[in-house]
C-alpha cells in the first residue's frame, strides 16, 4: 500500500510543509529477573512466587545460590491471592519443584480504587488456604515469606492506600502454622532497616534493600536443600541479644561467614528492650565494640534532629548527653539502641534470621563433642564450624549436653560468703520491707491464709543452696509528654485483689513505724510504679527506664522458678503472667481509689511512650531475665574473683558492677510480718573475667562459646550480668569463634597469647588499671 505521506528524517511532509514528529520511545529492556533460565542438570529446582518485591530480590537470590540450585520465578508480578489462584497451574507447569518460596499480601491489602485485586481478610485467608493445598500437591518444600512493611501507616496517597499488613501477616501465619509450612519472616528482616533501604512514600526498596532481602531468601532456601548443598557457616550465633549482635559483628569483621539466629523479631535484647539506663560500674573498663556502641549513641544525640521532645540543653545531668565529654553516652531510647544494633549487623555483612527457635528435643546434632548443626522448630537447620549461645536462657548449651546450674549454690560449694539463702544478712536492703506489713488475706488473721505470692515456708539457714531464681520484670519506657503518652489500661484478667499487698505496704507510710532494729531515720516509701523520682533514670526525649522500686513493685517475686529449664509453653505462660502483673500494677496505681492520692495522681501523669515498641503495643519485647542457666566449665567465676581475692591468668574482659541479686522469694517472719529474701549486694573493684568461663569442658562440647550464661556462681554472675559486660564478652566470644573456625581447632585449644593480641588490637580492656 502506497504511503500517503513521505517520511523525511523523523518529520512528515504535508502539503509542502514539514511537520516535526517525535520518534517513538524505545521500549525498556526486559527485566532479567523475569527472563526464563535453563536448568543446570543435577541441581535442585527452586520456584519463587511473589509480587514486585520478589522480582526485586530474584537476581540476588540467583547469585547467592549459583552452582547450588536452579532458581526460577513466575514470569510476571504474581499480584494477589485471587490472581495467583487463577495462574497457579500455569506457573507450576509439569516440572518437579524441590523448593517453592512464595508470598501474597501487598496486592490483597491494597485498597480501592487503586487496589483492583484487593481481598478482604476473610477472602485472603480462604484463597491462601487453597493456594497452600495446591502447592502441597507438588511435594516441594514450601517456604512462606511474610509481606514486607508499607510505610506511612499504609496511606501513601489518597488513591494508594493499604490495609494493615500486620493483620494479613497474622492470617498467613495461622494458615502456615496449621499446614506445617516454614516461614521466612522478611518483614522482620527489612522493617528495622526501612529508614536506610526503603524508598520514600513507596512499598519498594533500594538495591541495598533487595540485596538484604535476597540474602535472607537465599539462606531460607539453602536450609531446605539436601545436606550437601546447604549453607555451612564459619560461625553460627544463636540469640540476638546485645552480646549476640556484638559476637556476630566481631566474627564477621574478622572475615568469617556468620549467621545470627534470633528467635524473636528484634536485635539487642534488654539493651534495646527498655534498659536504657546502662548499669555501668566503672566506665573505663568498657572498650572495643561495646564502647563503639555507646559512642554511636552519643553521635546520634549530638544531632539536633534527635531531640524531638526536649532540647539538649535541658538534658544535662551526669552520664547523659555531654557533647564535650569522652565520646560516649550511656543513656538512650530503646529504638535508638535497636537501630544501632541493626546498623552494626548490616555494615558487617551478618546474615540475620528472625523468628527461628531452637527445637528443644532434637534440635542439636553432634558428632562426638562437636555440634554439627542446629535445627529450628520450623525444620530450618544451620550448620557451622563454631557456635555461640548468646541467649539469656542458655538453651543451646543445655541441649548440647553442657553442664549448668540453676539457682543459688551453697556458700560451701565455692568457698563464698554471699551465696545461697540470704534472709538475715541484708534484712533492710532497698528491695525489702522495712515497715511491718501484714501478709494475711484478712489482716491479722493467720487462719485466713496468705496473700498471693507469699511463700508459706520459712527460709533455710543463710548460705544454703536452692534452685530459686532472682525475680524478673520488664524495664518500661514511659513518658509524661501528653502527645506521646499512651494511657495505662487494665490487662485481660485484671484483678485488683492481686495488689492487696501493695495497699498494705502503702498504708504503712503515714504510721511511720519501722522494725525495731531498722537503722534510723526511716526512708520514705517509693511509688511502686515510678520510684521516688522517675527523672533519676530519665532517657532522652522525656522517657524513662522504669525498673522495680521497693519491696513490692515490678519484680514478680517467686513466680519464675520454672522459667530457666521450661519449654516454650511454660515460658510463655510465665511471660504472660509477668506482663499481666506489671500492666495491672500500673493501672491499679493510676486508677484504684484505695491508692493514696499522692501516688495515684503522680502515676496518672505517665503512660507508655507511643513512639517506642510500636509492634508490641508499646510494651518492651524482652523480659528482663536477670539470671537463668549458668554454665559449669573448667573455670567458674566466683565471689573470690569479683572481690579480687583470685585473678585468672586468661582475661577476656573486665567486670566492675556490684555483686547484685534481686529478691528470690517472699515469706512471713516468726513475728507475722512480710519480708523478701535473696537480695544481695557486694561492692567490687574492676576485675578480670577468665576466657575459660566462656567455654564448656572440652569433653562436653569443643566448638561452643557462651558469653551470656557464663560459667559463674550466682554471686559472681550478679556482677557479670550487666549489658555492657555481655557486650564485652560477646566480642571476646566472637573473636574466639573466628580464630577457632580459621584454625579448625577446639575453642579450648586456642593459644591464649594469640587471642589476647587480637582482643587488644580490637580495643578490649583486659587488665586494671587500664594501660
Characteristics:
771 residues; alpha/beta; seven-stranded mixed beta sheet; five-stranded parallel beta sheet; 20 helices; 16% strand; disordered N terminus
| Helicity level | 25-40%
Q: What's the main sheet like?
A: 7 strands, mixed
Overall residue-averaged pLDDT value: 92
**Strand-residue proportion:** 15-25%
**Rg calculated over all Cα atoms:** 29 Å
Oligomer status? single chain
Derived structural class: alpha/beta
Specify the number of helices: 20
Overall geometric form:
globular
Unreliable stretches covering 5 or more consecutive residues: 1-19
Based on DSSP secondary structure assignment, what is the total number of beta strands?
32
State the end-to-end CA separation.
93 Å
List the helices and strands and how they pair.
Blueprint: E1 7-8, E2 11-14, E3 17-20, E4 45-49, H1 52-64, E5 70-73, H2 81-92, E6 99-102, H3 106-109, E7 110-111, H4 121-136, E8 141-145, E9 161-162, H5 165-179, E10 182-184, H6 186-190, H7 194-197, H8 207-222, E11 232-238, H9 242-253, E12 258-262, H10 288-301, H11 334-348, E13 351-354, E14 364-367, E15 370-375, E16 381-389, H12 395-399, E17 404-406, H13 411-414, E18 440-442, E19 445-450, E20 478-479, E21 485-486, H14 500-511, E22 538-539, E23 543-544, H15 568-591, H16 597-604, E24 607-609, E25 629-631, H17 639-642, E26 651-655, E27 659-661, E28 665-668, E29 674-677, E30 680-682, E31 687-690, E32 704-705, H18 714-720, H19 723-743, H20 752-761
Parallel strand pairs: 4-5, 4-6, 6-8, 8-10, 11-12, 11-16, 12-13, 16-32
Antiparallel strand pairs: 1-2, 2-3, 7-9, 14-15, 15-16, 17-25, 18-19, 20-24, 21-24, 22-23, 26-31, 27-30, 28-29
Amino acid at each position: 500500500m502506497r504511503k500517503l505521506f513521505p517520511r523525511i528524517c523523523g518529520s512528515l511532509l504535508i502539503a509542502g510543509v514539514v511537520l516535526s514528529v517525535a520518534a517513538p520511545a524505545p521500549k525498556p529492556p526486559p527485566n532479567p529477573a523475569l527472563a526464563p533460565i535453563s536448568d543446570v542438570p543435577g541441581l535442585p529446582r527452586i520456584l519463587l512466587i511473589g509480587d514486585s518485591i520478589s522480582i526485586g530480590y530474584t537476581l540476588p537470590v540467583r547469585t547467592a545460590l549459583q552452582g547450588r540450585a536452579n532458581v526460577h520465578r513466575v514470569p510476571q508480578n504474581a499480584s494477589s491471592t485471587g490472581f495467583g489462584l487463577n495462574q497457579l497451574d500455569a506457573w507450576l507447569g509439569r516440572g518437579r519443584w524441590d523448593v517453592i518460596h512464595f508470598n501474597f499480601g501487598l496486592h490483597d491489602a491494597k485498597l480501592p480504587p487503586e487496589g483492583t485485586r484487593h481481598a478482604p481478610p476473610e477472602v485472603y485467608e480462604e484463597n491462601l488456604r487453597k493456594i497452600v493445598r495446591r502447592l502441597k500437591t507438588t511435594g516441594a518444600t514450601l517456604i512462606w515469606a511474610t509481606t514486607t512493611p508499607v510505610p506511612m501507616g499504609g496511606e501513601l496517597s489518597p488513591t494508594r492506600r493499604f490495609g494493615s499488613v500486620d493483620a494479613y501477616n497474622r492470617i498467613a501465619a495461622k494458615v502456615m502454622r496449621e499446614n506445617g509450612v516454614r516461614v521466612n519472616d522478611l518483614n522482620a528482616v527489612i522493617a528495622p532497616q526501612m529508614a536506610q533501604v526503603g524508598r520514600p512514600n513507596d512499598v519498594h526498596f533500594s538495591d541495598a534493600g533487595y540485596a538484604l532481602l535476597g540474602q535472607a531468601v537465599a539462606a531460607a532456601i539453602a536450609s531446605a536443600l539436601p545436606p550437601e548443598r546447604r549453607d555451612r557457616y564459619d560461625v553460627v550465633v544463636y540469640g540476638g541479644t546485645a552480646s549476640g549482635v556484638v559476637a556476630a559483628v566481631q566474627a564477621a569483621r574478622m572475615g568469617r561467614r556468620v549467621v545470627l539466629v534470633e528467635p524473636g523479631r528484634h536485635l539487642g535484647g534488654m539493651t534495646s528492650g527498655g534498659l536504657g539506663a546502662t548499669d555501668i560500674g566503672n566506665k573505663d573498663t568498657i572498650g572495643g565494640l561495646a564502647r563503639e556502641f555507646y559512642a554511636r549513641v552519643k553521635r546520634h544525640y549530638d544531632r539536633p534532629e534527635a531531640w524531638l521532645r526536649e532540647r539538649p540543653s535541658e538534658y544535662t545531668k551526669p552520664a547523659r548527653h555531654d557533647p564535650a565529654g569522652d565520646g560516649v553516652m550511656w543513656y538512650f531510647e530503646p529504638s535508638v539502641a535497636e537501630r544501632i544494633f541493626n546498623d552494626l549487623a548490616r555494615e558487617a555483612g551478618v546474615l540475620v534470621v528472625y523468628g527461628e527457635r531452637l527445637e528443644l528435643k532434637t534440635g542439636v546434632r553432634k558428632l562426638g563433642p562437636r555440634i554439627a548443626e542446629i535445627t529450628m522448630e520450623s525444620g530450618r537447620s544451620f550448620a557451622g564450624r563454631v557456635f555461640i549461645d548468646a541467649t539469656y536462657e542458655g538453651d543451646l548449651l543445655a541441649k548440647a549436653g553442657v553442664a549448668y546450674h540453676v539457682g543459688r549454690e551453697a556458700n560451701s560449694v565455692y568457698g563464698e560468703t554471699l551465696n545461697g539463702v540470704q534472709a538475715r544478712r541484708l534484712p533492710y536492703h532497698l528491695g525489702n520491707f522495712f515497715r511491718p506489713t501484714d501478709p494475711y488475706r484478712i489482716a491479722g488473721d493467720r487462719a485466713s491464709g496468705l496473700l498471693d505470692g507469699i511463700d508459706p515456708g520459712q527460709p533455710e539457714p543463710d548460705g544454703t543452696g536452692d534452685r530459686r531464681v532472682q525475680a524478673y520484670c520488664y524495664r518500661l519506657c514511659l513518658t509524661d509528654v501528653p502527645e506521646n503518652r499512651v494511657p495505662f489500661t487494665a490487662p485481660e484478667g485484671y484483678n485488683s485483689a492481686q495488689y492487696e499487698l501493695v495497699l498494705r505496704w502503702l498504708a504503712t507510710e503515714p504510721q511511720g513505724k519501722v522494725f525495731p532494729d531498722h537503722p534510723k531515720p526511716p526512708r520514705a516509701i517509693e511509688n511502686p510504679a515510678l520510684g521516688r523520682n522517675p527523672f533519676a533514670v530519665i532517657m532522652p526525649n522525656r522517657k524513662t527506664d522504669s525498673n522495680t522500686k521497693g519491696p513490692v513493685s515490678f519484680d514478680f517475686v517467686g513466680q519464675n522458678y520454672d522459667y530457666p529449664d521450661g519449654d516454650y509453653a511454660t515460658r510463655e505462660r510465665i511471660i504472660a503472667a509477668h506482663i499481666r502483673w506489671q500492666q495491672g500494677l500500673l493501672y491499679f496505681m493510676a486508677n484504684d481509689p484505695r491508692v493514696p492520692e499522692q501516688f495515684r495522681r503522680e502515676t496518672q501523669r505517665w503512660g507508655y511512650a507511643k513512639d517506642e515498641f510500636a509492634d508490641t503495643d508499646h510494651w518492651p519485647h524482652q523480659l528482663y531475665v536477670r539470671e537463668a542457666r549458668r554454665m559449669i566449665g573448667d573455670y567458674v567465676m566466683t565471689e573470690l574473683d569479683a572481690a579480687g581475692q583470685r585473678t585468672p591468668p586468661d582475661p577476656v574482659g573486665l567486670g566492675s558492677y556490684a555483686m547484685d541479686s534481686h529478691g528470690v522469694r517472699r515469706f512471713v517472719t516468726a513475728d507475722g510480718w512480710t519480708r523478701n529474701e535473696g537480695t544481695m549486694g557486694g561492692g567490687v573493684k574492676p576485675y578480670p573475667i577468665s576466657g575459660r568461663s566462656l567455654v564448656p569442658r572440652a569433653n562436653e562440647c569443643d566448638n561452643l562459646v557462651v558469653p551470656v550464661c557464663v560459667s559463674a556462681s550466682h554471686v559472681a554472675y550478679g556482677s557479670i550480668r550487666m549489658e555492657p559486660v555481655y557486650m564485652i564478652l560477646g566480642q571476646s566470644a566472637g573473636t574466639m569463634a573466628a580464630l577457632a573456625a580459621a584454625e579448625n581447632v577446639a575453642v579450648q585449644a586456642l593459644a591464649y597469647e594469640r587471642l589476647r593480641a587480637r582482643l587488644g588490637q580490637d580495643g578490649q580492656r583486659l587488665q586494671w588499671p587500664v594501660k
